[in-house]
């Protein structure tokens, strides 16, 4: 696919027209306050993997509504002092996989906490283990329209809250250094890292890779690809609900979380990416609230972005922060 979005010079100046709700901060303060009324109850059970350089713990903690959320904590073998902490969120449809997967960040000498995404984990990878016990009104298949009738009911209210609680759970382990916490992820995981980066004020770095969940007004009208297309197909049937849907999505738009970002950030965008169009990524990047921010651009790539090249770039970049 050739370039289909704005030219790069226009992307660097692009600003989203997404309207921020007046009660955005109140909504999220109330949401997190309600979640914290439940005991975090973070449990770390050692897992026998046969690995000699990495130790793995099967993690359970209380997320939104006190619901149990799973994860993996991976540590360099033999660690005795608190380590810089990387909290990672997953791409759409994936789960935490198997304990011997995703060894990069622990191999750099950091603690690595990988959060399972509730209700997902059956599209790619090694599977997921976290249920989403909350139902919703009629929705299009997928996750994008579950509970889209109201912000209080929306699926991503639960997932983003789980993300904040994942940071709290990871920080509760004695071998993680809470003062050196990074959040990152690819695609959906990148969008979640932006949201958590806007809600957790004391992170040292945020690294969203080709992030999803940004600039909804443009994304849902620009690309025919799923997952954004789920919203358009829902509205194709529910023609009278467009304003209601726009209102709900405004509480979850990465652009608004980005404006509250208080940590250095490394973004990435791919100019042929039709899944997360580059203008939607630049919308969040340009709104990011911390002046120390960089975006790596991959001119001829689709949603794979920089792939292993960007992994290496993130490893190099994080040396300055954690």
UniProtKB/TrEMBL annotation:
Residues 1-319 form the Acetyl xylan esterase domain. It comes from the Bacteria. InterPro entries: AB_hydrolase_fold, AXE1_dom, CE7. This is Acetylxylan esterase.
């Amino acid at each position: 696919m050739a370039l289909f979005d704005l030219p790069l010079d226009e992307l660097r100046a692009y600003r989203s027209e997404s309207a921020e709700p007046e009660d955005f901060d109140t909504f999220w303060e109330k949401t997190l306050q309600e979640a914290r009324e439940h005991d975090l109850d973070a449990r770390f059970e050692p897992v026998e993997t046969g690995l000699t350089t990495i130790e793995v713990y099967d993690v359970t903690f209380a997320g939104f509504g006190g619901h149990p959320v799973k994860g993996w904590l991976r540590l360099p073998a033999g660690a005795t002092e608190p380590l810089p902490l990387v909290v990672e969120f997953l791409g759409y449809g994936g789960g935490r996989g198997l304990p011997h997967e995703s060894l990069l960040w622990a191999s750099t000498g950091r603690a690595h906490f990988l959060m399972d995404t509730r209700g997902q984990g059956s599209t790619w990878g090694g599977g997921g283990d976290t249920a989403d016990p909350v139902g919703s009104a009629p929705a299009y298949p997928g996750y994008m329209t579950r509970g889209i009738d109201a912000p209080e009911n929306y699926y991503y209210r639960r997932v983003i809250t789980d993300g904040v609680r994942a940071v709290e759970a990871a920080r509760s382990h004695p071998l993680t250094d809470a003062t050196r916490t990074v959040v990152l992820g690819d695609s959906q995981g990148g969008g979640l890292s932006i949201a958590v980066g806007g809600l957790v004020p004391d992170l040292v770095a945020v690294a969203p890779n080709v992030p999803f969940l940004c600039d909804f007004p443009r994304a849902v009208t620009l690309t025919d690809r799923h997952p954004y297309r789920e919203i358009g197909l829902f509205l194709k049937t529910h023609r009278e609900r467009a304003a209601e849907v726009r209102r709900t999505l405004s509480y979850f738009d990465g652009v608004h979380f980005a404006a509250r970002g208080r940590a250095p950030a490394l973004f990435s965008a791919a100019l042929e990416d039709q899944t997360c169009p580059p203008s939607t990524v630049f919308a969040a990047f340009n709104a990011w609230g911390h002046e120390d921010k960089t975006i790596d651009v991959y001119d001829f790539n689709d949603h794979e972005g920089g792939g292993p090249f960007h992994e290496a770039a993130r490893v190099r970049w994080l040396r300055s922060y954690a």
